[in-house]
Amino acid sequence: MRTCGGIERYEKRVLAVLHELLSLTVEKMVEVDQLAHFRRDLGIEVNVRELLLRHPGIFYISTKGKTLTVFLREAYRKGV
Known about the structure:
This protein is of the alpha+beta class. It has one domain (6-75): Arc Repressor Mutant, subunit A (Orthogonal Bundle). It has helices spanning 6-24, 32-37, 39-42, 48-53, and strands spanning 29-31, 59-62, 69-72. The longest helix has 19 residues, at 6-24.
């Protein structure tokens, strides 16, 4: 996985899978803990929270309350 840009391609694939998963939901959001349950099924071997934090242009993470919620940036409007 480390040859020929393997890690970068793997992260792009994981980002694409997470983006598609969120775009299929009605609210365009999901709790980060719920995403962790799908890690094995989706073949995600990286820390989901760190990956989401490295890409703030695509995802918005809300820390309101005790849970972390991830939104698609394109579907999020402040206060709505």
